[in-house]
Amino acid sequence: MGSHKDAENTHPANSGATLPTPVTPAGRDALDAILRRPGRTVIALDFDGTLAPIVPDPEQARAHPDAVAALAALAPKVASVAVVTGRPAAVAVRHGGFAGVPGLEHLVVLGHYGAERWDAVTGTVSAPAPHPGVAAVRAELPGLLDGAGAWQGTWIEEKGRAVAVHTRRATDPQAAFEALRAPLADLAGRHGLIVEPGRMVLELRPPGMDKGVALHDYLKETAAESVLYAGDDLGDLPAFATVEKLRTEGTPGLLVCSGSAEVSELSERADLVVDGPAGVVHLLSTIAEHV
């Protein structure tokens, strides 16, 4: 990280790539702040659906082929790049290919909604003890799912500090998703957990863990003066809310939706909607060329 971080950028456009224009005044102000003082900006990004395309099997998810190069080009020019994900931090690092990449020496991955943290500078993960309710839910889930033929095709993803039930492979994914919400909420509640809905997935996890809290704490830690947050799913709404609150307090923030027809809540609140992970990568690359 060089001393340029403390200076304003006085060379806006230096390539042929054109930056998209945010549709809101707050978004346009935030993009201007990011371009003027990139060294005071935190770039925060969800992983699945934002840096990595959604796939039927989450274990097969990998970052977009150009994502690491885009991040490596941008990271040395900004205050920090943070990946904020519901996945275990180590899994996001592995699936993203983030370890040992020149330019990403100070990348941070906030996994399990901030309960875990991986720092590229040390290559290690730090985390508190897991919530006991996760083990209890893990033990009961197979019996609950096996007892209903209508939910055939649903499957369980083990996430360490959380457990997720996917319905994307079910005969009727949306019907299975809706039918499971109440029983899973009951199961989670009995063990002190909550249910976080997503794109054909219901995640059972401890309360108090969300991307909004993780993002707020990290922005405070880094003393960021502006922020870009990009996400694609319902789990990103708390991070959007954090950025919206910070904007009322004078911190410019750009909200980016990695476009999806499955989730309209984010696109309706975003300053900028891009075409999935490819669009996010293009945006990051273009910002890197302009700062």
User: What can be said about the biggest beta sheet?
Assistant: 8 strands, mixed
Please count the beta strands (DSSP E, at least 2 residues each): 12
Share of helix, binned: 25-40%
Q: How far apart, in Å, are the first and last alpha carbons?
A: 14 Å
What are the low-pLDDT stretches, counting only 5+ consecutive residues below 50? 1-15
Q: How are helices and strands ordered from N to C?
A: HEHEHEEEHEEHEEHEHEHEH
Task: Characterize the overall form.
Answer: globular
Notes on the structure:
- It is a single chain.
- This protein is 36% helix and 18% strand.
- The protein is an alpha/beta fold.
- It has helices at 25-36, 67-74, 89-96, 132-146, 173-190, 211-222, 237-248, 264-269, 276-290, and strands at 41-45, 80-84, 108-111, 116-119, 124-126, 155-158, 163-166, 194-197, 201-205, 226-231, 253-258, 272-274.
- The chain has nine helices and twelve strands.
- α2 (67-74) runs parallel beside α9 (276-290).
- 48% of the residues are buried.
